[in-house]
Amino acid sequence: MLDTYQECWNRVILRCPTLSPKLAQDFIVNAFRRLAERKRWSWLVKQGQFITPDVYITGTVAVTNGSNLVTGTSTVWTAAMVGRQFRVGLAAPIYTIQSVISTTSLELDQAFGGPTSASTTYNIYQCFFTVPTDFHQFITIYDVAFNWRLLLDINQDELNIVDAQRANVGNPYVVSFRDYTISQVGLVSAALQIVGTGNDPVFGGTFTGPSDAVFTVEITTGGISGTAIYKWKKNDGTYTTLVTTDATGAAESLMDGVTVAFPTPVSYTAGDVFISNVYAIPNSGLPRYELWPHQQSQKVYPFLYESRPVDIDDPGATLPRYIRGDVLVSMALEDLALWPGPSKDKPNPYFSERSAAYHGSKAEAMINVLERQDEEVWVQLITYQYAALSWALATPLADSAWLQRHAI
User: Fold this and answer.
1) What are the residues facing 17 on neighbouring strands?
2) CB neighbours (10 Å) of residue 406?
3) Within a domain: 201
4) Which residues, at least 6 apart from 129, have a Cβ–Cβ distance to it below 8 Å?
5) Are 54 and 147 found together in one domain?
6) Average pLDDT of 30-43?
7) Same structural domain for residues 71 and 172?
8) Beta strands in 103-244 (DSSP E)
9) Predicted confidence band at 396 (pLDDT cuts at 50, 70, 90)?
10) 301 in Cβ contact with 291 (< 8 Å)
11) Is 263 a domain residue?
């Protein structure tokens, strides 16, 4: 039977009954964190995958220098495109789609820097990928179809030397760290009617914009849901007009994650105006990587990665199978023995440098055993020369290009 977090901190209190439960818990949490970050344990290894979608090029777009809004003609853009990359030609940078307002309107993460064009071709595909929320570092990422491992040691500066335009497309063999995502978990306030006395719509969603804003909705044709028509805008922007309310009362996307719904079976009055104040709340970003050359067909790239350990006091968290509770208790007791107490008037009765040294050496001996046992599950201290480098030919294809495309 595995030890539990509660059993561990209770054992610490047994050694020092005057210790508060909160402090005992903190000692165990810190001990687990130090132990988890000591090495790449086998129980931290997880699997993931990057899936590249087919490139989307239907229709044409209108882009304006200095604006992050893009208008499409004969396009059918969907919410699934949020997070994918958008580009026009090779003279402008690659942008990320921040929100899809409608099938013919989307918003980029930055203002478009290329020349203004009323009608031009474009590409929507994905070459930047965000890792899982518990990601620490890659172990390996590979191409199943082409039977090779992708390179992980090429940085953005090196890519900018060989392909600043990112003109190369095809099967990637490089995974390069690019940046951190900037995610928002902003709040959307209830509707506030500023004109009229009719029924209110319902604003909702999670605001993903970078700064606080105001959304305005005006009913332009009255009636029940499915008949009533409205227009909307963000801040002092241009109105998006002639939007028909959903007949079922379902929420409809505006932009930046904000939605509006017109519940049934009530009627809405022409001329009524409503606003919703939305508030930006930044969230911790995650590493984002570029797959290069850029794959514009649907493919999958599996990977193994080392995850960040959970905080053992998180709801539902459990001690890994190969971590014994007595190791954490000894580490916690070392910390406890080095803690003099909250004040001179209230000294810690367990305070003793000699006891701290004893528990520290005891914990270290037990950790060495855990590391040996983990090596028996996944050997990492011994590495071998890859067989490919000892072949008679320089490479399987007798070509330096093979080495350039394989992480051996």
Assistant:
1) none
2) 20
3) yes
4) 50, 288, 289, 290, 291
5) yes
6) 95
7) yes
8) 105-108, 117-120, 123-125, 128-130, 135-143, 148-149, 174-180, 183-184, 187-188, 192-195, 202-205, 213-221, 223-224, 229-234, 240-244
9) low
10) yes
11) yes
**Encoded tokens for 66:** 């200095």
My answer on whether 135 and 200 are in the same domain is no
Distance in angstroms (rounded) separating the CA atoms of residues 6 and 21 = 10
Rounded to 10 degrees, the C-alpha dihedral 291/293/294/297 comes to -110
Average confidence score pLDDT of the chain: 91
Residue 383 falls inside a structural domain: no
Q: How far is it, in rounded angstroms, from Cα 20 to Cα 22?
A: 5
The 10s digit of each residue's pLDDT in 166-218 is 999 999 999 999 999 876 778 999 999 999 989 999 999 888 877 899 999 99
Say yes or no: 97 and 242 in one domain. Answer: no
**How confident is the model at residue 56, as a pLDDT?**
98
Whether 120 shows a pLDDT value over 90: the answer reads yes
Query: Do both 99 and 169 map to the same domain?
Result: yes
List the domain range (segments joined by +) for residue 342. Answer: 5-37+327-374
Domain endpoint, select from 247, 282, 317: 282
Q: What angle do CA 188, 193, 194 make, to 5 degrees?
A: 115
3-state secondary structure of 297: coil
Q: Are 295 and 181 in contact (CB under 8 A)?
A: no
What's the rounded Cα separation, in Å, for the pair 203 and 14?
53
Is 275 found in the same domain as 208? yes
312-338 pLDDT tens trace: 999 888 899 889 999 999 999 999 999
Does the residue 42 lie in any domain?
no
Three-state SS for 29-89 is HHHHHHHHCCCCCHHHEEEEEEEECCCECCCEEEECCCCCEEEEECCCCCHHHCCCEEECC
